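Form 12-C: Joint structure prediction
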Amino acid sequence: MPLWKPDPTFYPSPRQAVSAPAEKLAYVAAFDRAAEQPDAIAVLDVDETSDSYGRVVGWTDLPHRGDELHHFGWNACSSALCPSSPHPHVERRYLIVPGLRSSRIYVLDTKDNPKAPKIVRTIEPAELAKAGYSRPHTVHCGPEGIYVSNLGGADGADGPGGIALLDHDSFDVLGAWEIDRGPQYFGYDFWWHLTRDVVVTSEWGTPSMIEDGLVGELLLGRKYGHSIHFFDLRKRRHLQTLDLGDQHQMALELRPAHDPTKEYGFVGVVASVEDLSASVWLWHRAESGDFAIRKVIEIPAEPADAADLPPILQPFGAVPPLVTDIDLSVDDRYLYVSAWGIGKLLQYDVSDPFAPRLTGEVRLGGIVTRAAHPAAPDLALAGGPQMVEVSRDGRRVYITNSLYGAWDDQFYPDGVGAWAARLDVDLDNGGLSPDPRFFPHGDEFRGRRVHQTRLQGGDASSDSYCFP
Amino acid sequence: MSWLEILTLAGLGAFHGLNPGMGWLFAVAIGLQERSALAVLRSLVPIAAGHALSVFAVAALVEGLRSVLATRVVAIAGGLVMVGFGLWRALSRRHFAWAGMRLTPWQLTGWSFLMSSVHGAGLMLVPVLVANPPPGVHQDHALHAPSDPSALLWQGLAATTVHTVAMVTVAGVIGLLVYRVLGLEVLRRAWVNLDLVWAVALIGSGAAAVALTL
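Section 2 - Result
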């Protein structure tokens, strides 16, 4: 049944969304690298006043094995208030959960028992193939339905990757979103400037380039993605490509400003093949009317003894920062940058997006450092801050530590483990620190690795807004 | 047109203007994007035009049919269509999907036309249109005989104009109030599910139109 009043988790503007109440539950994608147990959605208690705060309080196993859960998203969000196709009386209740390896997409209902989401629909790979795609990745709720980006083509084709459109209500696969993809071939992340009718997409690689691990020759041959693309949201046509330069391998997460009057955003780059540094770039509308892009953050590699390094890094004698996720707070003030290789989460004040200012950092894990969490000071941590999610009010940051099954194994060959952490943000002065009460890890995740987190009611990377 | 009919048409116009989905919300969004109250009012022009076109399409059809058929037949058929359309609106979970916020005035007119049409804005006027006796025909005979087509068409145009002026006045007042005074927070509290109200209104007045004519 449709609601009588708009879903209370929808906010017309980011200014209002920051006043949202604190989340009480978090959903975490958990997967078994060995594909011996089913992947699962783990439910974390993130309510500070609760006795089970910081613990896994719910768990939904999926019916298959080897899906490799990765990213996921909500069926509906604040974009439902957009005036061009308003439908604010739908409910934010379904999680759209793609299996990146299996190409299955699960729909989980969180309404009846939010701690035990129920699977209500499974979209099989053959249905997704109707859109011409496989390896579904990012999910966003938008004006024409649910948009899902994909890395691979259908029926064994390696590419092109692109966006599939799903029906808002039935979750049926409606088809490929693009009418004219131009030179775009690689898929990965996407988001938009909703009021400007602009879609932005980024590039990782095709399934054959990633599924068995990072391929050294491809990386040094500069074959992974290094461009971002702009599309017309309404006409579904390619508008512009911005090439960062082929030394900048893997342009991944896209974080456009939430303020709908702004036309800029950030994209993280995993590694430069010239010096193993990682970087964050800012795209913005230039005076010419086209988009332009420039590097605004560079994080250097950290020298290390070859003996401390996994085989894949030994020839380089350094740890690459590996910026694998970034997240922008809803008020567009702080940008959080995961440096998964060196085990750091960095906080930048991006009030002036052209001149980010480092305001805080936390060390956890890292290929060489293995920094411990204050809740378990003697436990050397593998993995590093990877997926990062920010609460709507910007006060809490959640991180998990796995990147992608096959790649975890290369960079943390003795086991990446599983842990999540919450960091508390000093909004006024900048800075962030781990909450010693919040450190679910190890057996709590039942042998699975943990990837993306989604917060109940929405978070900084789930909602887009049509009003400033 | 009697005063009662004018008031009813204007009342329905106000009811349509009240609905955020019919246009004032879009006008507010454009105003906020351009930081201009004038932009709110300016964008209501194409929105009103699109709404008027949608309403007039139904009015012209009804009046055209009345020029060849007995009004009673048109009233019953119109009532049944309203009930069917209302049921579809009430039971279907599909919503109007339109991608794109940067529209030319012509595109905004098209958007408004489609938005009004899929919500049955014009249909809601059918009972008033058929209750209105054709020009020069006494009420007692109005239900029975076909009438002069061009006079009927003018009548449809007049009804559309009354309706649309009321609609855009209400939409403009609310749009400016939200833009200047109330703020967007009101959306979260006061935006009741008008799609549901519309569906009920269509079913109810369609059924009444049929019942009263039989």
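Section 3 - Comments
Residues 3-213 of chain B form one domain. The longest helix of chain B spans residues 149-182.
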